[in-house]
Amino acid sequence: MFAIKHLSANQRLLLNILVPTAYLLPLVLAYFGPKNFGFGIRGLVYIGLCVGAAGVLLWVAAMWTLGSSLSVLPRADRLVTKGVYRVFRHPIYVGIVLTLTGLFVACGSASCLVYVLLLVVPLNIFRARAEEKVLLQQFGEPYRRYRDSTLF
After folding, report:
1. Architecture of domain 8-148
2. Spatial contact of 146 and 89, defined as CB atoms under 8 Å apart
3. Regarding predicted confidence, which is higher, 115 or 4?
4. What's the pTM value of the predicted model, to 2 decimals?
5. Of the candidates 92, 123, 98, 91, which has an alpha carbon nearest to the alpha carbon of residue 113?
6. What are phi and psi of 89, to 5 degrees?
Protein backbone atom coordinates (compact mmCIF):
# COMPACT_ATOMS: atom_id res chain seq x y z
CA MET A 1 0.00 0.00 0.00
CA PHE A 2 1.37 3.41 -0.88
CA ALA A 3 1.73 6.15 1.71
CA ILE A 4 -0.73 9.01 1.25
CA LYS A 5 1.47 11.45 3.15
CA HIS A 6 4.25 11.08 0.55
CA LEU A 7 2.06 12.26 -2.32
CA SER A 8 2.69 15.64 -3.90
CA ALA A 9 0.00 18.33 -3.87
CA ASN A 10 -0.77 17.57 -7.54
CA GLN A 11 -1.09 13.84 -6.84
CA ARG A 12 -3.46 14.56 -3.93
CA LEU A 13 -5.54 16.84 -6.15
CA LEU A 14 -5.70 14.15 -8.83
CA LEU A 15 -6.89 11.55 -6.29
CA ASN A 16 -9.45 14.01 -4.92
CA ILE A 17 -10.87 14.20 -8.46
CA LEU A 18 -10.44 10.57 -9.60
CA VAL A 19 -12.01 8.86 -6.59
CA PRO A 20 -15.38 10.65 -6.79
CA THR A 21 -15.29 10.25 -10.58
CA ALA A 22 -15.08 6.47 -10.10
CA TYR A 23 -18.46 6.72 -8.34
CA LEU A 24 -19.96 9.07 -10.90
CA LEU A 25 -18.92 7.16 -14.03
CA PRO A 26 -21.33 4.21 -13.63
CA LEU A 27 -24.20 6.64 -13.03
CA VAL A 28 -23.44 8.33 -16.33
CA LEU A 29 -23.13 4.94 -18.06
CA ALA A 30 -26.45 3.78 -16.61
CA TYR A 31 -28.15 6.99 -17.68
CA PHE A 32 -27.01 6.76 -21.29
CA GLY A 33 -26.98 2.96 -21.54
CA PRO A 34 -29.84 0.62 -22.36
CA LYS A 35 -32.28 -0.01 -19.54
CA ASN A 36 -34.16 -3.14 -18.59
CA PHE A 37 -35.87 -1.82 -15.46
CA GLY A 38 -35.66 -4.39 -12.70
CA PHE A 39 -34.30 -6.85 -15.24
CA GLY A 40 -37.90 -7.28 -16.37
CA ILE A 41 -39.16 -7.93 -12.83
CA ARG A 42 -41.27 -5.01 -11.64
CA GLY A 43 -40.68 -5.77 -7.95
CA LEU A 44 -36.91 -5.45 -8.42
CA VAL A 45 -37.39 -1.83 -9.47
CA TYR A 46 -38.94 -1.02 -6.09
CA ILE A 47 -36.47 -3.13 -4.13
CA GLY A 48 -33.58 -1.46 -5.97
CA LEU A 49 -34.97 2.00 -5.31
CA CYS A 50 -35.43 1.20 -1.60
CA VAL A 51 -31.87 -0.15 -1.32
CA GLY A 52 -30.57 2.91 -3.19
CA ALA A 53 -32.53 5.28 -0.94
CA ALA A 54 -31.24 3.52 2.19
CA GLY A 55 -27.73 3.87 0.80
CA VAL A 56 -28.17 7.60 0.20
CA LEU A 57 -29.56 8.10 3.72
CA LEU A 58 -26.64 6.19 5.27
CA TRP A 59 -24.15 8.10 3.09
CA VAL A 60 -25.60 11.51 4.00
CA ALA A 61 -25.92 10.63 7.70
CA ALA A 62 -22.27 9.58 7.76
CA MET A 63 -21.13 12.77 6.03
CA TRP A 64 -23.23 14.85 8.42
CA THR A 65 -21.75 13.05 11.43
CA LEU A 66 -18.19 13.52 10.18
CA GLY A 67 -18.67 17.24 9.61
CA SER A 68 -15.31 18.94 9.19
CA SER A 69 -13.48 15.60 9.49
CA LEU A 70 -14.77 14.55 6.05
CA SER A 71 -12.04 14.15 3.43
CA VAL A 72 -11.38 12.10 0.31
CA LEU A 73 -7.85 11.15 1.37
CA PRO A 74 -7.19 9.45 4.72
CA ARG A 75 -6.42 11.72 7.64
CA ALA A 76 -7.38 11.76 11.29
CA ASP A 77 -8.06 14.74 13.51
CA ARG A 78 -10.53 12.97 15.82
CA LEU A 79 -12.08 9.56 16.29
CA VAL A 80 -15.76 9.66 15.32
CA THR A 81 -17.82 6.94 17.04
CA LYS A 82 -21.29 8.50 17.24
CA GLY A 83 -24.32 8.32 14.96
CA VAL A 84 -24.02 5.71 12.21
CA TYR A 85 -20.38 5.28 13.22
CA ARG A 86 -21.60 3.34 16.27
CA VAL A 87 -22.49 0.51 13.91
CA PHE A 88 -20.23 0.96 10.85
CA ARG A 89 -16.61 2.09 10.69
CA HIS A 90 -17.04 3.06 7.03
CA PRO A 91 -20.71 3.98 6.54
CA ILE A 92 -19.94 6.26 3.60
CA TYR A 93 -18.47 3.37 1.64
CA VAL A 94 -21.34 1.07 2.59
CA GLY A 95 -23.77 3.83 1.57
CA ILE A 96 -22.03 4.32 -1.78
CA VAL A 97 -22.21 0.61 -2.60
CA LEU A 98 -25.86 0.35 -1.50
CA THR A 99 -26.80 3.47 -3.47
CA LEU A 100 -25.14 2.38 -6.69
CA THR A 101 -26.26 -1.24 -6.40
CA GLY A 102 -29.85 -0.26 -5.71
CA LEU A 103 -29.99 2.18 -8.59
CA PHE A 104 -28.46 -0.29 -11.03
CA VAL A 105 -30.85 -3.04 -9.98
CA ALA A 106 -33.73 -0.60 -10.42
CA CYS A 107 -32.67 0.44 -13.90
CA GLY A 108 -31.58 -3.09 -14.83
CA SER A 109 -27.97 -2.39 -15.73
CA ALA A 110 -25.92 -5.57 -15.46
CA SER A 111 -22.77 -3.86 -16.77
CA CYS A 112 -22.97 -1.18 -14.06
CA LEU A 113 -23.49 -3.84 -11.38
CA VAL A 114 -20.32 -5.54 -12.65
CA TYR A 115 -18.55 -2.15 -12.48
CA VAL A 116 -19.61 -1.80 -8.83
CA LEU A 117 -18.41 -5.31 -8.03
CA LEU A 118 -15.09 -5.06 -9.88
CA LEU A 119 -14.13 -1.42 -9.27
CA VAL A 120 -16.20 0.34 -6.60
CA VAL A 121 -16.13 -2.42 -3.95
CA PRO A 122 -12.34 -3.00 -4.26
CA LEU A 123 -11.74 0.79 -4.28
CA ASN A 124 -13.75 1.15 -1.07
CA ILE A 125 -11.93 -1.75 0.58
CA PHE A 126 -8.60 -0.18 -0.38
CA ARG A 127 -9.69 3.20 0.97
CA ALA A 128 -11.00 1.63 4.19
CA ARG A 129 -7.70 -0.17 4.80
CA ALA A 130 -5.74 3.03 4.18
CA GLU A 131 -7.98 4.92 6.60
CA GLU A 132 -7.75 2.20 9.23
CA LYS A 133 -3.96 2.29 9.04
CA VAL A 134 -3.98 6.06 9.65
CA LEU A 135 -6.54 5.77 12.46
CA LEU A 136 -4.64 2.96 14.16
CA GLN A 137 -1.40 4.97 14.03
CA GLN A 138 -3.14 8.09 15.31
CA PHE A 139 -5.37 6.63 18.04
CA GLY A 140 -3.89 3.20 18.85
CA GLU A 141 -5.78 1.06 21.36
CA PRO A 142 -8.96 3.19 21.48
CA TYR A 143 -9.32 2.74 17.72
CA ARG A 144 -8.58 -0.99 17.98
CA ARG A 145 -11.41 -1.38 20.54
CA TYR A 146 -13.75 0.66 18.34
CA ARG A 147 -12.79 -1.38 15.25
CA ASP A 148 -13.45 -4.63 17.08
CA SER A 149 -16.92 -3.49 18.17
CA THR A 150 -18.24 -2.35 14.76
CA LEU A 151 -19.04 -3.70 11.31
CA PHE A 152 -17.17 -2.70 8.15
Report:
1. Up-down Bundle (1.20)
2. yes
3. 115
4. 0.85
5. 98
6. -80, -30
